[in-house]
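Hi L.,

You mentioned the student needs an example of a multi-chain input paired with its predicted structure. This one should do, with 571 residues in total across all chains.
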Amino acid sequence: MRVALPLSLALLCLPMQVTAQGLSDEQPAAQALEYRAARVMRDAMRRCWRMPTAEGARHVRVSVEFNLNRDGTLATEPTISVEGGDETNPIVRDAMESARRAVINCAPYPISNDPELASHYEIWREMSLVFMVP
Amino acid sequence: MRLIRAFFAAFAVALLFAFAAPAHAQLRVDIEEGHLNPMPIAVNDFMGANPAAQQVGQEVATVIRANLERSALFRPIPSSAFIERITAMEVPPRFADWRIIDAQALVVGQVTPLPDGRIRIEFRLWDTFGETSLTGFQYATTPDNWRRIAHRISDQIYEQLTGERGYFDTRIVFVSESGPRTRRIKRLMIMDQDGANPFFLTGPDAMVLTPRFSPSTQMITYMSFETGAPRVFLYNLETNRREVLGDFPGMTFSPRFAPDGSRIVFTLDMNGNSEIYTMDMRSRARTRLTNHAAIDTSPSFSPDGSQIVFNSDRGGSPQLYVMNADGSGQRRISFGEGRYSTPVWSPRGDLIAFTRQGGGRFAIGVMRPDGSGERILTESYLDEAPTWSPNGRVIMFFREGRGAGPRLWSVDLTGRNLREISTQTDASDPAWSPLLP
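Structure written out for the whole complex:
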């Protein structure tokens, strides 16, 4: 009880603390960095992702999750999942393969070339790229 | 004092939640733009235990490279760029050596003479970035059949790397044209899809027109004047037997098979009025599908056999119409400028290819079965008679220039990769076979 009360008080105070410490200003800055990191990844995929050519691939969304090291190399094997498709379908399988190849082929990512991004590794350490054929 | 300590402890936990959690959030990025450049692929000459086997191995690899390159989805890397020299099928390649030259996939194979005089052709497809074997097969065959095996291997590579069925182990039947325009000789000819192994199916005495492959069997239907009046013939490629489809009172033309090969749909002209009929291949019973004073012709089944697209001038100019397979529900689907003809339903069912004439030019285009989404793929002085590859990705047609004879051309469904198909003579009216059994 002696611990629960102050804990509740502290949690109640948290929004005030965040505001007081100016996080509302930092939030847009973080979003801007996320945007810049995303742009680096999109530019990379524009070069490296060979889009599936099968007509049926248009409805498939492939998600590739992986971690990056600070130097832009892959820290983990990409984990691939698919939305809106059956993984046993050859067209879906090819869409997954093309995304996987793109992620592996494109590393190392030049993301740390941007000094500000380099100092905010936490923003881009864990990636989830969602590939959609337009 | 204890209360203050607990307060600070709780505050620290709250801070941890406030800052640590976002710091480990995953950055989600939507990727909607890549490229459509051909995939670099390394196809090694297949190894051989003796010079004859090595020769076959080189030729197999050459055909595979040519097939893949012609699809425009792959870019075979010149062997002069290879770093590793493959010497054994069983040993995994040094993937890094292939990644350096940007090979995204690697094909290795070998040809082995068998004691019974046949040869075994085997191959393996490697993913150089995933460092895994994607597929591999072996075939025992007669030495003279190596080209077909090369096409089959090409299909397997294509299927594995694109997700779509291949179309390399197929043939094209077409009208071979020779001689002066006033005395043109038109014979039926067949060749592999890459132009190899051409040979005549009919002699020079009777003019032939509109050959069409059965989508499911090795049967061809075509129109011939060999009995005087134009008649629809059937040609069985497995038995080399020919027969007249039927003896009708008028002229028959524009024959085409139903998807399962059980029926033929064609045009019968009686007393100057052309109507569309189907004929059951077993009972030879015919059923009239259209009944209109206008010209109804060029019927083509949808791949599920439930509908037929055809050409009619009932609206004042030749346009495309769709009806149910029993003739009901006839409706116009083309409304663009110009005259539409030779409609062919895609094997995938999602598109209809056609010829459109307007402004003194001919174009090959596609539209959805409801008439929407019309796209022109090629246009010239004369482009005509589209036919689909069995995977519905490529369209072949014939093109004729001013004063020049007709030649066969192919184009990708996207309108890219326009190529002339090499033939020994002038060539028109191509028809693409299904994948060979």
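You could point out the following to them. The interface with chain A takes residues 2-3, 6-7, 9-11, 13-15, 18, 22-37, 39, 73, 104, 127, 129-130, 159, 161-164, 348, 350, 413 of chain B (CB under 8 Å). The radius of gyration of chain B is 28 Å.

Best wishes,
N.
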